[in-house]
Amino acid sequence: MERPRMVLETRDLTKQFGGVVAVNELNYAVEEGELRCLIGTNGAGKTTLFNLVTGALKPTSGEVYFRGVNITGLSPHQICRMGIGRKFQSPNIFQELSVSDNIRVAAQGKSGFLGLALHTYDETFEDQLPPLLKSIRLYEMKDLRASSLSHGQQQWLEIGMVLANHPSLLLLDEPTAGMTMAETRETVGLIRDISAGMTTIVIEHDIGFVREIAETVTVMYRGRILAEGRLDEVERDEMVRDVYLGRQRE
Amino acid sequence: MNLHSVTRSIQKLASSVPKLTQASVGIGRLGRISLVTLLVLPLAVAFPLMVGRFQVGLMVKFLIFAMFALSLDLLWGYGGILSLGHAGFFGLGAYATALVLIHFDGPGATYLGLLAGMIVPALLAALLGYFLFYGRVGGMYFAIITLVVSTVLNQMVITFIEFTGGLNGLYPIPPLTIYIPGLFDLEITGAAPLYYSMLICLVLFFLFCRKTVNSGFGRLTRAIKDNETRVEYFGYNLANGKIAVFCLSCALAGLAGGLYAPAIGFISPDLLGIAMTTEVLVWVAVGGKGTLTGAILGALLVNLIAFFLSGQLVNLWYLIMGMFLVAIVIFRPKGIMGYLRE
């Protein structure tokens, strides 16, 4: 049987902060088209893994491969240009810019500074702007300053910005953090729509949310993979119950 | 008549109402802008007819200062990069242009001089920016290094007397000439011609800056000021972007300096000094950083007030000026234009 093509793969990836090993000889792989959830307790190394993949941190040892290319040690903008898009944990947007301008800045990302300085803004993108704004439920707010949006709307805006940047692998770090119940429900639909066309990895704490969206779940614990598989399988795992989900009384 | 079609046309009419209001709002905004232009422009054009030669000569200087303020606003107000050595680049441009004009006396010397006045500061900015921005030096550390660089430039100008005239400065500097091959070679001398040519230069400066800040490049500049990290994770090379903004701003500062040298006819090391840097920061802060009209307004207003006060209250004016500036920073931190916009 032919091995399916891996979009992302880490080989013995390790990151040490002083005496703390945040990610410990991690071998993690995600296939093309997957929607993968990454769960685990605080300090399990989930966000550190994202930081290592996107170039925010340099690993102590080990390698990261993106579509077979070794991207270890590249800078964030180089990694982004190869097609990895990232949404940060708390909304990381341009507060002073309008909602539309936030998306525009993101969309132009790969044209580079010189391209921007020499050419005027590519008007063809303006046609793509309204449908994108509608898909993230922010069309009516397109001219508002981003800082005037609610927390949940800011989260959506950042997701929209990352999409406008056209990645082929999407990393979402707690996309529903701080959202109301209604917003979370809408986000489930949004992420389902997005992941239909794109390999997506989602870090999430909310097990209800994970149950809604995920096919495969990876549980991290102390920088390693504790369990991996379908959510119902993972939930039955004794170790996972012990460290993460909590034991149910018989 | 078909009732259905009537309803439809009514619906059409109703849906076009918001569009109509939008259109009138658009005209309203345009009207406000042209109203300001209508008031200010005739005043600016008639200015030399209303006052004496001395005042016109002073205004020439202030118009050039307004261009200098625009260049700083681009870097500080839009890019969020504070430079404490911007006068160094202004003065460098002035000296580069002056030296070309003094040593090269051929047709088109003005063009060559102004080009040198832009390129020399831009190259220095590129070199500095390369090491500082790739080395991730930002904020106050960057500001302090620019301060040191301008101090070094100031000392160099004082030291290399054969070239720069040292503390005595350079004088006389040949005038600006507009040269068109085969047509004319026109020297711009006298207060009024200089005034009008600098007014035109300021308008061009303003239009160029406005086009820049409204372009994709300008939008990105504001994005960098807002959130550097996020910019990087969209595939932008952050260091290159900052170098580009810094170079552009320093080239414009140098061009303003390059116009200053032949227009005023005399330059000295003071132009690169800390006092000059402080002044341009004050003009932009008072006018409102991040607004182009604010930079111009601040430069003109502060200089005019300082001029009148120094004439009326020989001893007290520095004190009054200082208190005025402190009051602006405390009560109107966004400057005059920032306040008017709100």
Strand content of chain B: under 5%
Can you identify the CATH superfamily of the largest domain in chain A? P-loop containing nucleotide triphosphate hydrolases
Architecture (CATH level 2) name of the largest domain in chain A: 3-Layer(aba) Sandwich
> What is the radius of gyration of chain A?
19 Å
Report how far the terminal alpha carbons of chain B are from each other: 53 Å
Q: Describe the biggest sheet of chain A?
A: 6 strands, mixed
Count of alpha/pi helices of chain B: 14
Question: Short summary of the structure?
Answer:
Chain A is built from ten helices and ten strands. With 250 residues, chain A is α/β, with parallel strands linked by helices.
What topology does this entry show?
The complex is a heterodimer of chains A (250) and B (342).
Chain A (H helix, E strand, L loop, with lengths): L5 E12 L2 E12 L3 E6 L5 H9 L6 E6 L2 E2 L5 H7 L1 E4 L11 H9 L4 H7 L5 H12 L15 H14 L4 E5 L7 H15 L3 E5 L3 H7 L2 E6 L2 E6 L1 H6 L1 H8 L5
Parallel strand pairs in A: 3-8, 3-9, 6-7, 7-8
Antiparallel strand pairs in A: 1-2, 1-4, 4-5, 9-10
Chain B lengths: L2 H48 L2 H26 L7 H18 L5 H26 L4 H21 L1 H4 L11 E5 L3 E5 L2 H24 L1 H11 L1 H5 L5 H27 L9 H14 L4 H21 L4 H15 L3 H7 L1
Antiparallel strand pairs in B: 1-2
Helix pairs in contact in B: 2-7, 2-10, 2-11, 2-12, 3-4, 3-5, 3-10, 4-10, 7-8, 11-12, 11-14, 12-13, 12-14
Describe this structure in words.
- The complex is a heterodimer of chains A (250) and B (342).
- Chain A is an alpha/beta fold and 250 residues long.
- Chain A is 38% helix and 26% strand.
- Chain A has two domains: 1-76 and 215-250, P-loop containing nucleotide triphosphate hydrolases (Rossmann fold, 3-Layer(aba) Sandwich), CATH 3.40.50.300; 83-205, P-loop containing nucleotide triphosphate hydrolases (Rossmann fold), CATH 3.40.50.300.
- A six-stranded mixed beta sheet of chain A has the order 6-7-8-3-9-10, with helices on both faces.
- In chain A, β7 (169-173), α7 and β8 form a beta-alpha-beta unit.
- The longest helix of chain A has 15 residues, at 181-195.
- The model of chain A has no long low-confidence stretch (mean pLDDT 87).
- Chain B has helices at 3-50, 53-78, 86-103, 109-134, 139-159, 161-164, 191-214, 216-226, 228-232, 238-264, 274-287, 292-312, 317-331, 335-341; strands at residues 176-180, 184-188.
- The longest helix of chain B is centred in the first third of the chain and has 48 residues, at 3-50.
- Chain B is globular.
- Chain B starts with a helix and ends with a helix.
- The model of chain B is unreliable at 13-28 (pLDDT under 50).
- The A-B interface holds A 54, 75-77, 80-81, 85-86, 88, 92-97, 101, 104-106, 108-110, 112-114, 116-117, 119-121, 161, 165 and B 215-217, 219-220, 222-223, 225-227, 229-238, 240-241, 244.
